[in-house]
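Folding Problem: From Residues to Backbone Shape
Fields: amino acid sequence; protein backbone structure tokens
RECORD BEGINS BELOW THIS LINE
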Amino acid sequence: MPTKTSPKGTAAKTGTRSSSRSSARPETAGVGAPPPRSPGRARSDASRVAILDATLKLLGTTPLQQISIESIAREAGVGKATIYRWWNSKAAVVIEAFLHTHLSHTPMPRVGSPREALIRHIHLLIDEYSGWSGRVVAQVLAEGQGDPEVLREFRERFWYGRRAVVREVLEDARRLGEIRSDMDAELQMDMLYAPIYFRLLVRHLPLDKKFADTHCAAVMQMLVPPQAGTVAPPAQRRKTA
């Protein structure tokens, strides 16, 4: 698989890869049409985009620990006060810049059944994490082990929203009988994501298409409802004994 490189100027153009974004389940949404922009607001928006693009550029060339508010401001050509107008920490800027590309590249498709949507989403995520995005996430999680604020920003700006979308799809799959309803939804989500993040952080084996295929097949086998004639899990056998 070719090595992915960091996106260029993607804070202003976030849907360049995924043509199915319009049919994907949104993870962030605005309400109503935007109000007319004043010259002052246009300049403000331009500065914000410049900051996000500068952060993306730095993430492509510089370890996260070496990036600072000062270096982002210098790269964007703005003052630190301009950055603090929108974000209260480096972690907040970095995670929002990352999300500008990540959410559009790893959507939850609306096409097909809920089960098919989950499989497609996991394939997209593994492909995305095999390159630049994966390196950024690994650095964010590593830095978060020594800085609880980094993990808090990661959870609140990304993780909770992503899981809310997946939870909705799992509920649809339960209603249709595609996956078992006697298993905790949080555990089901962990089953989908934990092996991916384990490979991302430990790097003992690759995040590639072979892994995507085998992981999806294995986890879906565990999530399907028990069929007549199959052996029930030990806990279920104890209940019915």
User: Anything to note?
Assistant: The chain has two domains: 40-86, 89-225. Residues 199 and 205 are 6 Å apart (CA to CA). DSSP finds ten helices and two strands in the chain. The first strand starts at residue 24 and ends at 25.
